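Reproducibility note. Readers wishing to regenerate the assembly model reported in the main text can use the exact inputs given here. Chain order matters: entities are listed in the order in which they were concatenated for prediction.
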Amino acid sequence: MSDRSLPSILMVEDEASDAILLLRGFEKAGVLNPITHLKNGDEALAYLAGIGQYVDRSKYPLPVLILLDLKLPGMSGLQLLQWLRTQREIRRIPVVVLTLDRSPSSINAAYDLGANSYLVKPGDPVEIAKVIEAIQRYWIELNEPPPLVMGAKNDPG
Amino acid sequence: MKGPVLLVEDDPSDARLIQRAFGKMDSSVAIFRLTNGDEVVSYLSGEQPFDNRNAYPLPCVVLLDIKLPRRSGFEVLEWIRRHPSALNRLPIIMLTSSRHSVDINRAYDLGANSYLAKPDTVPQLEQMASEFQRYWLSFNESPDLHGSPNQLRRS
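Running the prediction on these inputs yields the following structure tokens for the assembly.
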């Protein structure tokens, strides 16, 4: 069960079987943050920009973290990342690339476009759960998120 | 073989605590401490006394304080991200006692990969060191710092 008072995590993943494994990983790791699962780059852009069906931010809150697959139908993960980093308010949201692609050129390109981190998706469900747990412990519990995003913690100002 | 973790921390007692917390972990990665912003620039540029890359290899990740003598952490971050070589991809994690919104926002705007607030107690610091190492040294894929520089980086 997720807790709606916690900031959400946006997961952009087109492969249904991968998405199921990742969502199970979140459950196993005891992640209480709501997970928003979107299946392609164009939808993620609409969500992050708050346009179309996603205008209502109380219903579709900005995420505290984006988990981004690279190979997506339509707009690619790298294109979405490039777009995000030019935006005014949401440009600082941490993006963790989570993909099967382990080629150095993709890793370099992701960092060049401003990815905060790059993780390779393991094929094995047990290993996926470990990666999700590491994401939860590092990015949700340890990292200080950009304060503009809802759910910023410990902000004295 | 991964390069060392570069710790940039001017306060000797903070540095000692952080190094001790990292030393507790069973890690093959060394931690190398520098005390001011100018030293980081010299180290990464391979200038004397850091001109021997075998003795002073490029780090796999930098833990960077904000308040530093000479160049500040922000100036160092900006210098790295504007570097004309592939060095500009180096993962930089701010580690500071500031939790101010302006500092957090500025760090992300200048291209910090992550922002960590120094914990108040030693057990919390040990926990942080352990999570940090697990995440950045075993899960995260490092960029190539020696290859051709990118054409893509946002300015």
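We highlight two features of this model. The longest strand of chain A covers residues 95-99. Chain A is about 35% helix and 15% strand.
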